[in-house]
Design a protein that fits this description.
Number of helices: 11
Bound molecules: pyridoxal-5'-phosphate
Number of strands: 9
Oligomer: single chain
Number of domains: 2
Strand order of the largest sheet: 1-7-6-5-4-2-3
CATH topology of the largest domain: Aspartate Aminotransferase, domain 2
CATH architecture of the largest domain: 3-Layer(aba) Sandwich
Structural class: alpha/beta
Largest sheet: 7 strands, mixed
Length: about 325
Amino acid sequence: MAEAIGGYFEMELQRGCNPYPTAHAFNSARSAFKALLLACNVRRVFMPHYLCAVMPDAAKTVGVEVVRYSLSDTLELLQYPELDTDDRLLYVDYFGLKTAYIQNTLVPRYRARLIVDNSQALFSLPVNDVATLYSPRKFVGVPDGGWLVNGPDPLSMPEQGTAEGRFQALLGRLVDEPQTHYSAFLKIEEALGLEGLKSMSKSTARLLDSIDYENIRTRRTENLTHLRNTLDSVNSFDTWPATPTPALCYPLLTNSLSSTIALREELLRQKVYVPGYWHEVAVDPTTPLVEKSWAERLLPLPIDQRYGLNDMDRLASIIHLAMGTS
Ligand SMILES: Cc1ncc(COP(=O)(O)O)c(C=O)c1O
């Protein structure tokens, strides 16, 4: 049927801004991962212990064996497994700060058997022939979505999902504080998990095509640089890239679990909301000590595009006051 001309207007959005226009678009990064594993007949996938549970669960639901690997205290592989033709190794560009390691060490070693999980690294570009996953809603306000760049071509795509009913928390956050709509947000995330393997909804695709990514890149880079200048002296995290980076967050690592708990409480009291990467890793008895300690002690401070240098100063002074280093 021919497309309509005229009629009432849709919501007014820009076009042509999607940073990965050739990507296969899904309802989530885990769906993109599942579709990739199925299309490549993968038998076994090596995955880090330090990773949210939905990713190994996704591999298992499509019948792929999961082998976990350990990381060093610089978030790099402790040992490099030999891979068969139907094996893959998934590595996360942690906080968007491990891009150089991927390009200089993992790509030359594993090439097309590597899967880069850029869910935390929206601005890290894919490398030729290396399948790369993105989860844009960790960086921008959209209800769902996942991209697969450098997937097999052609790739048979699942039925299209719908974002209908998933806008409540996003619209609510335009006018209210986050806690007012937090339970709605959690329900939406849960429903997305239950939706299973779907292509990206039209409305999410339109939203993602309308965003000023250059502004986001600049703000995140500036905010990260500013927090580095003010907080690096009290931070045990020290695997920084050589150049300014539009990271996911400023990872603040304290040297004890009790300091992290105290800091998290103080941040909450000051209405600074900090996620945890990842509770399930911290409580899993099979998690090695290094990963358990990352999961327990890391505070990912927000540096996103909603904030400027004054907000970063406020954050830094809360941390210094709480740590007694001001
Ligand atoms: C590193 C990483 N990869 C993948 C995912 C899954 O992304 P999605 O929720 O879009 O499936 C997450 C979610 O928390 C993540 O942190």
